[in-house]
Amino acid sequence: MNCRSIAVLVLAWSAVSILITGCFGKQEINDLAMVTAVGLDLYGDNQVSLSVQIVRPADARGQTGAPSGGTGEPIYSIQSQGRTIFEAARNLARFSSRRVYWAHNFVIVIGEDYARRGIADMIDFFTRNHELRMSTWVVVTPDKASEVIATITGMEVVPGEAIDKLFRYNQIVAEAPGSNMMRLQESFLATGAEPVLAKVQLKPRGISNKKPNQFGSLKQVVLSGAAVFKGDKMQGWLSPKDAKGLLPFIEKVDSEIAIVNCPNEPGKRTTLELKKLKQTMKPGWKDGKITLRIKQKIDANLVELGCSNSYAVVREQLEVKLRQQMEDQVKNIFDIAQQQYRTDFLKAGQTFHNRYPQEWRKVAAEWDDYFAEADVTVQTDVKLTSPVLKLKEPTSGKELK
Amino acid sequence: MNVRITNGMLLALVMNVIYAKAIGITQGIIAREVASDMWLSTLIGMLQGIAAAWLTARVIRMGGQASMIDIASKAAGKWAGKLIAAVLLLFFTGAFATVLVTFTYHLMDYFLPEAPVILFVVAALAVGLYGAYHGVEVMGRMAFVGVFSILILNILVMMGSIAEFDVKNLLPVMDSGLARTVWASRHFDTDWSLATMMIAILLPHVKKPQRWGRASAVSILFAGLTVAIWPILETGVLSAEATREYIVACMQLARSAHIGLFLHRYEMIMVAFFATSSLIQIMMSLFCASVCASKIVGVNDYRLLLLPTALLLGGTGYWIVADHLRAMIFTADYWPLFAVPVAIGIPLLIGGISMLRRNKEPAV
């Protein structure tokens, strides 16, 4: 074999090597089990029970009933156990006819027992895995995670997609944080902040079309409230009302509603929609003690008037009531963070670190104690800017006579 | 090698040669040292790079518009030239290993985890040989495509990240202190050192010598600015604490990017743009190493030594890339200690010798 032939062979081999790179580790689409939701529960004392909701593409095309060749079941939920998450995932292959594929996962649901034991292994597994999206939602449930991921909610045929959409439209309720894997990893690794995850639970909210008289015969996944962590361990829950106070500290609040009592009219209520909520936290450091000054600036619209007086009459009093309510909301969430859980999920440490980097070095190791003792003041500025379409109160024409 | 390239091609080559490693591997390493000050460290490194590139161009212009190796031969004898060529060959071998770390870990860890390492080494060498064989003008033209890819990639990652950007993650500024931030810039220095050493070999083939100094410095400035966007986004979007966790930090940012609700996981598109820049890095490392090898052996045509050099670079690169921990220890701990002194020391040494000889020459 002469030099020319060797050169041609080497070149041909190199060319083939490059051209077939796409074949390494190839995964045919009909060999994949596409996971759309993952549930993690504790199994025994220290083992993992992994549930996955796998979509059946032929049955999840948006139509009701069984399409030809399909089963009529849009999802296939399975469960396996292992000493680690990866072992449990591999054990799925014992009975799953397809290879589990994580890239289309919408949500990871963690059972309360698992969350209280610690979620460091879960954060590591899902952030080390190149298939998973960092925008995957992460939630905690007081129910069995396996049950939550198998429950069809809303109008979607795939439960994972339903939870994804709940998160998208939950912004208008503002009762649960938009906790995704990226934000969870960030707060878990940060020195001046603790993780907080959204809470989901099963509640009998659905009405069966076949048995409309049996209200609540269908369980639905409800996204409301939050779970508070210290390090990787869950400490407890925040109610939906508490979560409303939390949200402005950790994310942008686009919209929120507040219900206030009508001035001098017990039992009558008015609804205000917060159109703009701007909140700042200014830390201070005096004589070895930390102060936190919270300033809120709120623009609100009156969207439902239940009072007997017109907007012009009640406007100023409603502003005072809303201001009081918003200040109480902030004080309440600080009470929970400082006294009940003694964990800084409000990112006060991060804010303090940014403003006092030198002092932070002194207090960082005992930040939870400093945070618990911090003096908090709240100042809220409220403006009711619009009664939307009408100025007058809803009074019957007969009463006016 | 009688080919001449334009200053624009030089700029494009420098940008490509610096970019691929600097946005990911380097930023992860810097984040492990100075956390949220990684963007400052990168900018400080860029300023040092501008000075070093200007110095290198100045030395070459002063030394009679020949490559650094030829200037050394002229100033201190044939063996001095061979010694400099040997040091530079060693430099490009090390640089190629870090480039291969970048190329392989981007593609293998995120897209082809089951493919063997050797595949990436062979693919890199095949493309590198193709480019290096066709010479500097072909690579210069490809570098224009590379610059276009860099710009598109930067735009795509900005569009996909800006919604998640939190400026508070960049605070407090200079939290690690000036000394540590400056010291951490040595990692970005290793990236521009590949560019300045390429300039040391390539500059005599660039047109308009009067513009060499400015073109070299501006090239590093442009490269630095296109790179600096990444540590700012990585800190602002992922946080410094998350960035420092990853070997290839930029891929973590890329796979977190999404444009609106429906366009996400488009890192495959981004990595295609990245690959252009990475492949030009590979070609240039191989080309410069072959030129150095030809100077050591004493042959005029560097192409004769392309294959042996490719085997040397490929073998070393494979050994380093095959073990992730070894690769990161080499890239983060050992490589800056060799690369930065070479990139600064050789122009200073040769410039100094040239000046001394000029002073000794009797005035006519």
From TrEMBL, chain A:
Domain Spore germination GerAC-like C-terminal, residue spans: 224-385
Membrane topology recorded in Swiss-Prot or TrEMBL: Lipid-anchor
InterPro entries reported in the protein's UniProt record: GerAC_N, Spore_GerAC-like, Spore_GerAC-like_C, Spore_GerAC_C_sf
Subcellular location: Membrane
Every Spore germination protein N-terminal domain range: 26-201
A GO BP annotation: spore germination
GO cellular component: membrane
Keywords assigned by UniProt, alphabetized: Germination, Lipoprotein, Membrane, Palmitate, Signal
PROSITE patterns assigned to the protein according to its UniProt record, in alphabetical order: PROKAR_LIPOPROTEIN
TM helices/strands, residue ranges: none
Gene3D superfamilies: Nutrient germinant receptor protein C, domain 1 (6.20.190.10), Nutrient germinant receptor protein C, domain 3 (3.30.300.210)
This protein's record includes keyword Membrane: yes
Family: Belongs to the GerABKC lipoprotein family.
Protein name: Spore germination protein KC
Species name: Paenibacillus methanolicus
Taxonomic path: Bacteria, Bacillati, Bacillota, Bacilli, Bacillales
Automatic annotation (TrEMBL), chain B:
Record keyword Transmembrane helix present: yes
Database matches in Pfam families: Spore_permease (PF03845)
UniProt KW keywords: Germination, Membrane, Transmembrane, Transmembrane helix, Transport
Membrane topology summary: Multi-pass membrane protein
Listed GO CC annotations: membrane
Gene Ontology biological process: spore germination
Transmembrane regions listed in the UniProt entry: 38-60, 81-105, 117-136, 143-163, 183-203, 215-233, 268-292, 304-322, 334-356
InterPro entries: Spore_GerAB
Localization, UniProt: Membrane
Family: Belongs to the amino acid-polyamine-organocation (APC) superfamily. Spore germination protein (SGP) (TC 2.A.3.9) family.
Protein name as it appears in the record: Spore germination protein (Amino acid permease)
Species this chain originates from: Paenibacillus methanolicus
